[in-house]
Design brief:
Low-confidence stretches: none
Radius of gyration: 21 Å
Distance between the termini: 61 Å
Number of strands: 6
Structural class: alpha+beta
Strand order of the largest sheet: 1-2-3
Oligomer: single chain
Length: about 150
């Protein structure tokens, strides 16, 4: 029986969490995963993954996230590129006064900052200041609820 052939894998991303947890990401098209059985290969790679490199590994394909999750991520990326400390502060103040569930539109109207407030609310959701159903597109009709930790 021939000796196993040594192979290397280069992960696409390494996520470093504040807790110290390290997660290696392999990003592949689902057709390639199915055709080449990469999901099984990744299980073998994970079994040999040095802990000094990463604690775990994850396969991500275009099917890993819903259309709404992808769109929300795209908007978040765009909105985080637009710094607006004034809008963030005004929205944070309105959010502190929330009781119960409130539509995004109500927060936006309370600030009188229109699109600037919408972007600030969007950022606040992903910063954990307030919660919304992230499995749906975040719109002005989305309902906000207070986060457990504020």
């Amino acid at each position: 029986m021939p000796a196993p052939k040594l192979r290397y894998h280069v992960f696409d991303y390494l996520l470093l969490f504040e807790t110290g947890f390290k997660l290696a990401l392999a990003v592949k098209p689902s057709a390639l995963v199915e055709r080449n059985g990469f999901d099984k290969e990744l299980e073998l790679i994970k079994a040999q993954l040095p802990k000094r490199f990463a604690d775990d590994a994850l396969l991500v394909t275009e099917n890993s996230y819903s259309e709404a999750e992808v769109r929300n991520a795209e908007l978040l990326h765009m909105f985080r590129g637009i710094e607006d400390a004034e809008a963030d502060a005004v929205v944070a103040e309105v959010l502190r006064g929330l009781n119960g569930s409130t539509p995004v539109q109500q927060v936006v109207e309370a600030t009188r900052l229109k699109g600037r407030a919408y972007r600030a609310v969007f950022r606040a959701i992903f910063d954990g200041a307030v919660e919304a159903d992230l499995s749906q597109h975040i719109t002005e009709r989305s309902i906000l609820t207070l986060s457990e930790v504020r």
